[in-house]
Each structure stands twice: as structure tokens, then as C-alpha cells.
Amino acid sequence: MAATVQTFSRDRLPSDFGSEGRIRFIKDFTWGWKAKDRTNVEPGTIILPQTSGFFCLIDDPRHNGSGLRKYPGSDMTQFSIVHGDGTVTYGNKGARLYWANVTIPPGGKLQFHYIFLRGEWNNPHNAFAQFLAVANDGRVITKRKIAQTCDPGPSESGTYYRWRAFGPVEFAQGFSGALQWVVSNGQRCNNGDAHVDADTDLYPSALALDFISIIA
């Protein structure tokens, strides 16, 4: 099987990529803040790229010490996560990376590597990272949660964050459209009650992304 691999070799958006909110392509990132709930903190302090010298950081977890964002987030209210009990985490502020004009043949698969940088979880405030495949006609073909601050974090520890593989996501019928990676602060509410309060945007999260593979 042949594979198309997208990595990041420059500090700018590659061809056919676009963004909304704070998106950076960087060589390293140090994130030493620890949440009060240490079971929900990704271990490590330093992120390094896997392959081509840079990785993509979607949104920015840094804040003023009291939770206020160092950099403003963009409107992500169109995105949400549905929970098993019927409640919904509605997005608020964050960032989005997208890769347009992607074609995956029938039976093709997608995989990528990520690190989720967790802000503090303070129920019902609940940040998330999400992957979507949106067809050229606007239909959402795939929508999957990557990580969420209400979920338990990994148990290992160390100086360097460990990259994790997401997928493979199979496209049995093939796909033509845009791939999207979204990070947003949010608030967990009853389904249909999309109200979020002023504290929803405190302690932002972020997603590091690298080594996107399309296997056909």
C-alpha cells in the first residue's frame, strides 16, 4: 500500500492548508503548567517534532496564571462533543487547522500523531480536541473526539511529551474534501442548551500535530 505523508518543514502553512485562530509551526514548546487535578494532566514539559523540524500547535495553552488566555481564541461555537449520557460540550473559543483539496480513494485510511496539552478541567468547563472530515458538498463524513479535559490523562511521566497515534480512520467509500483539526474551550450542558458562561474560556488547551499519513 502506498502512503502520502504530510509533515511540517517550515514555520508557515503548507500548500492547501488554512487556519482560523492561533496556529503556529514551531521547533519546540515548553508547557510546564500543572492543573489542580493531576490525574488529568498530560505528563512531560517539552514537545519536540517527530520528523521534519517543525510541528503544528493548534491554539495556545498559555495564560496569565489566573486562567485568562495570553492570546485570544477564535469563535468555535459551531463545534461540539456529544457525551454518552446525552449531554453536550458546546465549543466556545479556540483554533482550527484545515487541509483542503484532500482526496482519499475507497478503502484508504488516515492516521496522524498528536499531543493534547490540557488546560484545567473544572466541571462543566471542558475543553476538547476534535477531528473532522468534511466533504466538498459540506457533509460531515467523519467527526471524532481526539481528547478532552474531562477524560483521564496518560499515566507515564518524563521530561518529553510522547506523541500518540490517532487512527487509522478508514474511508470505505473514499473521500474528497477538507480534513480539520479543532481545539476549543467549551461547557458541558443539556442537549439544546448552548449557553456558556464567562469562565468557559479560562485555562485553554492546545493540540500539537505532526506526521499526517494517508494510506491508500
Describe the 3D structure.
By secondary structure, this protein is mainly beta. The chain has one domain: Jelly Rolls (Sandwich), CATH 2.60.120. Helices cover 0% and strands 47% of the residues. The protein is built from no helices and 15 strands. The chain has strands at 3-6, 17-20, 23-26, 29-30, 46-47, 55-58, 74-75, 80-82, 88-104, 108-117, 128-135, 140-148, 164-171, 175-189, 206-215. The strands form three sheets. Strands 2, 7, 8, 9, 11, 12 and 14 form a seven-stranded antiparallel β-sheet that branches. Strands 1, 3, 6, 10, 13 and 15 form a six-stranded antiparallel β-sheet that branches. A hairpin with a 4-residue loop joins strand 11 and strand 12. It is globular.
Protein topology:
Blueprint: E1 3-6, E2 17-20, E3 23-26, E4 29-30, E5 46-47, E6 55-58, E7 74-75, E8 80-82, E9 88-104, E10 108-117, E11 128-135, E12 140-148, E13 164-171, E14 175-189, E15 206-215
Antiparallel strand pairs: 1-15, 2-9, 3-6, 4-5, 6-15, 7-9, 8-9, 9-14, 10-13, 10-15, 11-12, 11-14
CATH architecture: Sandwich
- Point out poorly predicted stretches: 35-40
Q: What is the top-level CATH class?
A: Mainly Beta
Main structural class = mainly beta
Count of DSSP-assigned helices: 0
Which geometry do the CA atoms define?
globular
Q: Which value, in Å, is the CA radius of gyration?
A: 17 Å
Count the E strands.
15
Q: What's the end-to-end separation, in Å?
A: 6 Å
SSE pattern: EEEEEEEEEEEEEEE
Number of domains as seen in the coordinates: 1
Mean pLDDT: 89
Q: What fold name goes in the CATH topology slot?
A: Jelly Rolls
